[in-house]
């Protein structure tokens, strides 16, 4: 058992390197990030649909809460994508390399 | 203000001719390199991550997103942003769920992934129905858009514009295949990102490079309402339904999925989605600025006076801040955008017709390279003719709903079967097949029964189906059908096949006995 990057919350997920373990970790990461993206996006859509006055509230001159949150949704999409690439480059790829070598 | 828009504009025509010559030059170069089906469909799998990121962005940033969203923001403010955001959030989903397994399991089309573990003939036929439906509606919307835009931008007759777009696109795809199409997308993406950035900088320059000053000016001129949600989203269920289709549809668009086969491996595919997400997100942030810039600098009445839908907001803004030369450049960018998108769509349609239907269903995968290329090119010519004919047939009709329809079918027909085939062991051929067919039929019939067709187009007094966007019904329906049908009649050999493919899903096709690279 190797534990890579235990300071990262994603680290322990890749602690074993059997195909099943790699597959399970990949699936867990994929589904968690997908759910995170959906919660953020549909949270925004539901606010647009149900609480228009709140989103129309002015945060500062020229900026409504809705526009700020909209820009944040784009930012979250970037951050989640970046987080996945980082996880895949540092953990997933290493496990895949182990699998290749052990064949 | 008077505008040079719609008059034959020497600068626009010059820029446009330069783009055409450059892209045809690329096509000639690419045609020499296109010798096998792998070149024609997948550019020899030699595209780099950055190149593919740009090409994905190029395929995705259609005229609808450039001119349409800028226009929507210019005329309705905040509401236009709902679309930009919806169109971006599909990309992380492509990354997490689709890109790498797709690259590892398939060869040319997304149906390859399904066919790798399920029965070839039924699965490819069902997948082709969904793919061709998406491509057809997307193509019609682009061709009609091309005809209208080019008439507005250059003063060319509608039919001539449609024939030019169809003809030039045919040249790219027919001779240069995926290599030419990829490079046309890259050139177009760089032009579009560069043009939009320059335009945004020219706008922001008038507001001390502070976007908030621009938005504040917009709310002074048109009321604080432009910064808050308005009339576009009235029904919460419809809003979620639209959001689902925009988000999951992206992960089911055949011409986007096909791009992942042009890179050498899954790692490159992954990095390329990262680039694409960055470029597309940046572009949609720019549309905030362009839309509000047009609202303030050009004015709503001037924009809707030229085109009621607001589609000319970005070109008018270019003229307003950069004069006729910049109008010419942005018009040429818009034309290039349409050309590149229809080329990508046609190539993926040709791959479906020739690779999925002819080679694998009709010929039982026994076609040699020469035959594959001949059939692929014949399919390209057929699709170009069909798209020109449909473009002219739909002249003057309201086709704005067709892009939404394409996303709804992609999300309902292609996405569920694809994602289940990647992640769910017990999926069966019958399950995937019924999911894809029911997804297509449900999306199509619910749109037909919706207010969009019944009230807006057929002018009936009421619509049977209350929502304008079918996604919230058709996407879950498609998942449920796949799962229920698969569980009712389990096929142990197909579950076994999934286990066998698990290694390939993560590692790709391995060359056995190759020493490990240290």
Layout of SSEs?
The complex is a heterodimer of chains A (103) and B (518).
Chain A: H1 19-50, H2 52-56, E1 58-60, E2 63-64, H3 65-101
Antiparallel strand pairs in A: 1-2
Chain B: H1 10-33, H2 37-42, H3 49-60, H4 63-76, H5 79-88, H6 90-105, H7 111-117, H8 120-154, H9 158-205, H10 211-222, H11 236-250, H12 254-258, H13 266-298, H14 300-306, H15 313-362, H16 369-393, H17 400-423, H18 429-449, H19 451-457, H20 471-488, H21 492-507
Helix pairs in contact in B: 1-9, 1-15, 3-9, 3-13, 4-5, 4-13, 4-15, 5-11, 5-13, 6-11, 6-13, 6-21, 7-8, 7-17, 8-9, 8-15, 8-16, 8-17, 8-18, 9-13, 9-15, 9-16, 10-13, 11-17, 11-20, 13-14, 13-15, 15-16, 17-18, 17-20, 18-20
Characterize the quaternary organization of these chains: heterodimer
How far is the N terminus from the C terminus of chain A?
18 Å
For the secondary structure, the number of strands of chain A is 2
Helix content of chain A: over 70%
CATH class of chain B: Mainly Alpha
Number of extended strands of chain B? 0
What series of H and E elements makes up the topology of chain A?
A: HHEEH
**Total helical elements of chain A:** 3
The level of helicity of chain B is over 70%
What is the structural class of chain A?
mainly alpha
How would a textbook summarize the main sheet of chain A?
2 strands, antiparallel
Q: Extract low-pLDDT stretches of chain A.
A: 1-15
Unreliable stretches of chain B? none
Strand content of chain A: under 5%
Strand content of chain B: under 5%
The strand line-up of the biggest sheet of chain A is 1-2
Q: What is the residue-averaged pLDDT of chain B?
A: 90
């Amino acid at each position: 058992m190797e534990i890579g990057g235990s300071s990262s919350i994603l680290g322990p997920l890749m602690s074993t390197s059997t195909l099943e373990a790699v597959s399970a970790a990949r699936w867990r990461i994929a589904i968690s990030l997908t759910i995170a993206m959906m919660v953020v996006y549909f949270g925004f859509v539901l606010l647009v649909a149900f609480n228009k006055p709140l989103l129309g509230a002015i945060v500062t001159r020229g900026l409504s809460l809705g526009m700020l949150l909209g820009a944040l949704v784009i930012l979250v999409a970037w951050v989640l994508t970046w987080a996945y690439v980082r996880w895949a480059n540092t953990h997933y790829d290493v496990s895949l390399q182990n699998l290749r070598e052990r064949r | 203000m008077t505008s040079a828009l719609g008059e034959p504009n020497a600068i626009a025509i010059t820029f446009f001719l330069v783009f055409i010559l450059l892209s045809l030059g690329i096509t000639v170069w690419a045609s020499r390199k296109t010798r096998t089906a792998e070149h024609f469909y997948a550019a020899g799998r030699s595209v780099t991550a950055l190149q593919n990121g740009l090409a994905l962005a190029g395929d995705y940033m259609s005229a609808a997103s450039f001119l349409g969203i800028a226009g929507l923001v210019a005329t309705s403010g905040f509401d236009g942003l709902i679309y930009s955001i919806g169109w971006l959030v599909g990309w992380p989903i492509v990354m997490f769920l689709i890109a790498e397994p797709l690259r590892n399991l398939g060869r040319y089309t997304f149906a390859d992934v399904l066919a790798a573990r399920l029965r070839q003939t039924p699965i490819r036929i069902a997948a082709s129905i969904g793919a061709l439906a998406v491509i057809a509606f997307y193509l019609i919307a682009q061709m009609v858009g091309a005809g209208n835009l080019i008439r507005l931008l250059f003063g060319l007759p509608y039919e001539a514009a449609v024939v030019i777009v169809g003809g030039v696109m045919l040249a790219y795809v027919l001779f240069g295949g995926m290599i030419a199409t990829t490079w046309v997308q890259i050139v177009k993406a760089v032009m579009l990102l560069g043009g939009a950035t320059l335009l945004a900088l020219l706008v922001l320059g008038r507001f001390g490079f502070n976007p908030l000053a621009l938005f504040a000016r917009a709310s002074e001129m048109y009321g604080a309402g432009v910064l808050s949600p308005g009339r576009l989203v009235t029904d919460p269920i419809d809003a979620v339904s639209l959001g689902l289709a925009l988000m999951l549809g992206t992960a089911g668009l055949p011409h986007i999925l096909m791009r992942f086969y042009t890179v050498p491996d899954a790692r490159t595919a992954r990095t390329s989605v990262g680039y694409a997400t960055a470029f597309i997100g940046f572009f949609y942030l720019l549309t905030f600025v362009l839309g509000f810039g047009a609202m303030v600098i050009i004015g709503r009445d001037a924009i809707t006076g030229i085109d009621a839908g607001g589609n000319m907001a970005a070109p008018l803004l270019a003229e307003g801040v950069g004069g006729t030369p910049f109008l010419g450049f942005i018009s040429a960018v818009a034309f290039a955008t349409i050309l590149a998108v229809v080329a990508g769509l046609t190539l993926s349609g040709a791959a479906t017709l020739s690779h999925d239907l002819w080679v694998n269903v009709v010929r039982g995968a026994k076609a040699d390279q020469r035959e594959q290329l001949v059939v692929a090119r014949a399919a390209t010519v057929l699709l170009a003719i069909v798209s020109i004919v449909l473009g002219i047939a739909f002249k003057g009709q309201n086709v704005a709903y067709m892009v939404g329809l394409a996303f709804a079918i992609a999300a309902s027909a292609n996405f569920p079967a694809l994602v289940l085939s990647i992640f769910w062991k017990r999926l069966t051929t019958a399950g995937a097949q019924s999911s894809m067919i029911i997804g297509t039929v449900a999306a199509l019939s619910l749109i037909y029964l919706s207010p969009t067709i019944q009230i807006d187009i057929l002018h009936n007094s009421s619509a049977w189906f209350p929502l304008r966007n079918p996604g919230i019904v058709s996407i879950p329906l498609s998942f449920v059908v796949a799962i229920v049908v698969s569980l009712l009649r389990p096929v142990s050999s197909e579950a076994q096949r999934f286990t066998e493919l698990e290694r390939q899903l993560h590692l790709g096709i391995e060359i056995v006995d190759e020493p490990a690279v240290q």
